[in-house]
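=== Structural record ===
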Amino acid sequence: MPWGRNRSGRRAHPVVVLRRLRVGVLSMVALTALLYLLVANRAGEQMAAADRTRQAIDNLTAAREAAVQAKDELTKAEEATGEVDLIGAGTGFANATTSVSTLLTSATKGNAAGEQGLHHIQFVQGQLTTCLQLANGPQGASAAIAAVEDGPERDDAGRDVRFTGGLIESLEDLREIETLALEEQLRSLWLNPYLLWPLFLTPVAVMLLLACATGHVVARHFRQYPSPALGLALLATASVAVTACSDPLLPGRGWVMAIALPLLVAAGGLGYVAYRPRIDEYRFPHP
């Protein structure tokens, strides 16, 4: 049913139109508040997950460095004694491999590659166990060194096949797949300001049209100017929307939310007050 007409098809009274316009304005303020809270929640969750993935990538980088150190310690011990299989790989090697194991476990908490990532982490942990067994077993340090530093196999196109090399190469492969997962997380709608612009500006644009329609009704039928409170309500709503679009992480910050939500509440109050003087001129029931 058109806003300018009632159920009988006759033109609706201007006050009835104003009531409908007021409902529309308040609905756009409420929608902006809902979108704000939704973006603050979802963007915060996405960024928290991305931060965990970044930490996992840092752990894997450190684990690879520890694996290189383990290989160096094993090489030093072998060159110094030539009998690593009898006296063991040494404290340095043990400390380095323990660090690799600890960092791998920590990286699991930030895994963003799903089941595939967990499977690869378990595979690398198995490689580490094999390296330890080789280093401390009868097969000698040379086998352990090879298990740590072997290069990857290549496919028919000459590209490296992931998780076909030694421990160092597998840790690098694991870091690469977690980096790809991080990039996917950062492409989320909730972290893309360019995709948030239409989401937030649509209710603001509708609110602007409603304000223009209100100005027309007030000027034509009441011979008055629209209330400045309506412009302030539009300005407050637009400022919150633009802030949320400019940086998806801003809505979730405590000090920003402490300003934005009261501002939207004030916008709703101003929107309600802006229509009251004209509506109060008539005292008949809503048709």
About this structure: Residues 186 and 271 are 37 Å apart (CA to CA). The first helix runs from residue 14 to 81.
